[in-house]
Amino acid sequence: MNEGKRITAQLSEINVTPFVDVMLVLLVIFMVTTPLLEKEIDVALPQAQAKDIEEVPAGVITFKKNKRLYYNNRRINFSDLERFLRETYERKTEKEVYLKADKDLSYGEVIKIMAIIKKAGIENLGMITEPPEGQN
Fold first, then answer.
1. N or C: which end of the chain has fewer CB within 10 A?
2. Interatomic CA distance for residues 49 and 129, integer angstroms
3. 17 within domain boundaries
4. pLDDT tens, position by position, 29-71
């Protein structure tokens, strides 16, 4: 009776092998690129005897030799620094910033940045330095 008709059943299984392959490739890509994204900004810090910082501070302003400013690895224009700090710290109760200034910058340039930080309403300003050679 059913000689010319063929009965086909649909395959209801999902092949997850290609999905797993793609996910593993993405995992490897993220594992390789993530450490590159977290690279610190290279600054030649002056050497000075100072108290060790227990943990990495939340607000670090980096002032490089080429006069570029960064706030926690985010580039900021010199003219926008005061406004940026006011907006960032307006709702915070503890207004504390650390300054990493390159040792080859002039005293006057560092003082200008410190004045802008104070003018923005930051109450506590700390300086980050390298320990003197032989005291690591």
1. N
2. 8
3. no
4. 888 887 666 566 666 666 666 555 555 557 888 898 888 899 9
Q: Is residue 45 part of a domain?
A: no
Q: Is residue 93 part of a domain?
A: yes
**Measured distance CA(18)–CA(20) in Å, rounded:** 5
pTM for the complete prediction? 0.58
Taking alpha carbons only, the member of 59, 74, 69 closest to residue 109 is: 69
Q: How many domains does the chain have?
A: 1
pLDDT in tens, 85-127: 999 888 888 888 999 888 888 888 988 999 999 999 888 888 8
Q: Which domain holds residue 116?
A: 60-127
